[in-house]
Amino acid sequence: MHHGIPPSVSVPPQAAPYPPGADPAADHVRHARHALVDSEPGLPAPVLAAAAGTRKAILVPVLTALAIGTVFVAVYLAAFHAPSARHQPVGIAASDKVAAHTELALNNAAPDGYTFYRYPDAAAARRAVTHDQVPAVLVADGRGTRLLVAGAQGPSTVSSLATALTTAVGKPVPVKDVLPLAAGDSRGLSVFYASFGVVLAGFLFALSSYQIAPRLGLAVRVASMLVFAAASGLMVALIGHSALSALPAPFAWVALVVGLLAWAAAAAAGVLLRVFGPLGMPVASVVLLILGNATSGGILPTTFLPAWLSPLASVLPPAAAVRGLRGAAYFHDAHLTGAVTTLAAWGLGCLTLQYVLDRVAARRRPAGSAALAVAR
Q: What is the value of pTM for the model shown?
């Protein structure tokens, strides 16, 4: 019979002694002096041991979020607080006298604001509008003066061009929408919302993948990424095309372009996390979520972007996806080939870069192990 020890209390076995400096409990205590307290009872000791100190736990999230928020506000306000056209394409199908008068008036009102294209007649003007060569054409012939526009370009574009051309002509000009928006996309923003959501999902996929399994093999990571991309394409096509009729492009094209966008976004975020480490998250946020979506052309045409921002519209994945989806939906597949090529190049390029980085790291690892063995 044991005295002094209640039967319900077990005595832990005596821990084996550790050499000086090798006691994990002592190491944990030393680390815990700078770690956060256990505010949630039951957290495993390794989690607590890996926790940042109080100062770092406060400053790093504040500085990271503040930096991302500052960049977001600065970019979006700089780009859209007072947007003005830069080399906005405008078509004219009229006599030389009327065309010259209109061009002069528009140039005086907004130097470098417009680029002019001449068309011989109303039929050619209509083809140009419906194939996304120009968003609007001023037509003046025996049937009178009128403005042919593509409502599929979005209300903001149509309204700004109608106002500018009416002022230039000097009298009210009837507006004829030869390519209206679909009933399920009354504001022309569905493509932007779909693209933004997929880019955000790709960013979160890469972030969670690296947090859960930072040393996952590239082949497995690529397989996971392709499953995510395929599921994203089907999900957006089912919701945007089939359920809501907000994306009037063919189902297969929506699924393909969106799937490629998801793949490109996930691959780009993944390689940024691989290259920059802890800084990869804010860098990927700025590149994909802020700059990518600001230059996508989903809110306003890229011709309304400031000069320092507009070059990104030709290379970043969100802009390519918006062009491709809009072209497939309304403009006889205009820009679709270029969009697919750009998105595929982003995905393949980022995965190739990651493969190279993994190979370089694998070669360095044996060399580092050999040097450590020699030192011992």
A: 0.83
**Which residues face 140 on adjacent strands?**
145
d(CA 199, CA 58) in angstroms, rounded, equals 29
Per DSSP, helices labelled H in 131-189 are 155-169
DSSP code for 121: S
* Beta pairing partners, 204: none
Mean pLDDT, consecutive 10-residue stretches, the chain (376 aa), reads: 47 48 48 50 61 79 92 92 91 96 95 96 97 97 96 93 94 95 94 96 95 88 96 98 96 98 97 92 96 93 92 96 97 96 98 93 69 53
Neighbours of 304 (CB within 10 A): 19
The SS3 assignment for 114 reads strand
Distance (Å, whole) CA 246 – CA 189: 9
Return the half-sphere exposure (C-beta side, CA atoms, 13 A cut-off) of residue 150: 25
Q: From residue 124, how far is each of 8, 149, 173, 328 by CA, in Å? A: 93, 13, 19, 21
CB 159 within 8 A of CB 133: no
Show the tokens assigned to 282.
């804010």
Note the pLDDT tens digit of each residue in 312-344: 999 999 999 999 999 999 999 999 999 999 999
